[in-house]
Write a structure and sequence with these properties.
The protein is an alpha/beta fold. The chain has two domains: 235 residues, Rossmann fold (3-Layer(aba) Sandwich), CATH 3.40.50.300; 213 residues, 3-Layer(aba) Sandwich (Rossmann fold). 33% of the residues lie in helices and 25% in strands. The protein has 14 helices and 24 strands. The protein has a nine-stranded mixed β-sheet with strand order 12-10-13-15-24-23-22-19-20. A seven-stranded parallel β-sheet has the order 3-2-4-1-5-6-7, with helices on both faces. A four-stranded mixed β-sheet has the order 17-16-18-21. Strand 2, helix 2 and strand 3 form a beta-alpha-beta unit. Helix 1 crosses helix 7. The chain is elongated and about 75 Å long.
Amino acid sequence: MEAESNDNPRVLIGGLRGGSGKTVVSIGIVSAFARLGKKVAPFKKGPDYIDAGWLAMAAGRPCHNLDPFLFPADRLCMSFSRYSLDADLSVIEGNRGLYDGLDAHGTTSTASLAKMLGAPVILCVDCTKATRTMAAVVLGCLYFDPEVDICGVILNRVAGVRHERILRTSIESSVNIPVLGILPRLNPDNFPERHMGLIPTPEHKLALDAIDSAAATAQKCIDLDRIFSIAQRASANPLNPSSPSREEHRLKQNSADITVSSSQASDSFKFLSGTGRIRVGVVRDSAFQFYYPENLEALADAGADIVYVSPLADSKLPEIDGLYIGGGFPETHAGELAENSAFREAVKKAAEAGLPVYAECGGLMYLGRSLVLDKIYPMAGVLPIVFGFSRRPQGHGYTVAVVGKENPYFPAGSRIKGHEFHYSRVLEWNGSDSDFVFSMEKGKGIVNGKDGLSYKNVFATYTHIHSLGMPGWAAAFVRAAHRHKQNQPK
């Protein structure tokens, strides 16, 4: 039975496996609706920066991640509601196969997210070298978990008219759900891939052209009107089964935001009184681009003004009280990073002087002594570690870490949920296990099952965190920055 139309339309794009084309399909759908004048709120399931960057560019607004592992269901639903309130349509891209999760029960799967959000699912199916068998596959997905509302399929990588005819007839007659689109093989030059997936948008000179091409293909090959109609059938807003009106929900959400923001502000600003806001530098360019929007928003809510800085373009650090170096691809920019010795030396000098520095993955690599690729590229030299690069992933998946000792950012004894995905590896480590804060319950870490290097006010880790899973992180960072500011000569 179809649900009544609601004022929070949403749809989730799932697939049978990773690499089935759902990212390009999602980009096409998002960009096509945006070009038709719809306000589209994009979301990406799971820990992912690259696909989220493409979806954000397609929508013309930030893409937010929804991850049932990294943060609890109530925060996930609150985040979805908050960032979808002003949208005409929300499009959520799943990850991996629809039912793939951390265990045989599909824990944290795309299907579990769809049920959590009450989102209809459109299945993107790679039809390479298959015809009628795809009907059986789709039918299996449909009945594997009847609570998952699969409302249609998009057939991807269809070879021609005959291929399309057999696929469409087989699925619509046997499965009794509509085929909403038929996509041919697309030009791989539009969405080139590298070792971690798609080339990120900051490094793709023709990214906007690629998105335009995906939008044109979606408008031509996908029934967008029917997709929007399916999105309107989504069940009641996941935050409230009684499905309040958009205006009622907006008032509740605004009230909740004010309460949370006031609480965070009181925690932060009670020690900022009379000193002005804290300035946190964020290293952001094509070499360092992996930041969750919520992490930056959390820093701002905690009392920080964000100041963007680039080790590719700048010769020195601006006046800042803390520095956040996210993940990215220092390996593809190693020459440029090494050549900018003035910036490297400025970072080392600031770190030695006690500047709070929080670094994740690529940021960790930048703080090391060197990066060894075709030759040795000197890095900032803050930490006694040398990195190399491998052809295979060295850390890939979710992480769980136990905080073993005091540090400026995480309470001792707490458990940290995060994720790691890197091809870099440690070639030389000239410290000791006592330099690490994290002991890994899940994941690889840096060396010896340890992660989270702590030196003075520097904290560097392979583990990426999300502020919704670690809500105290931003306030702790700002407190450390405030202490550093207070200790500077007047």
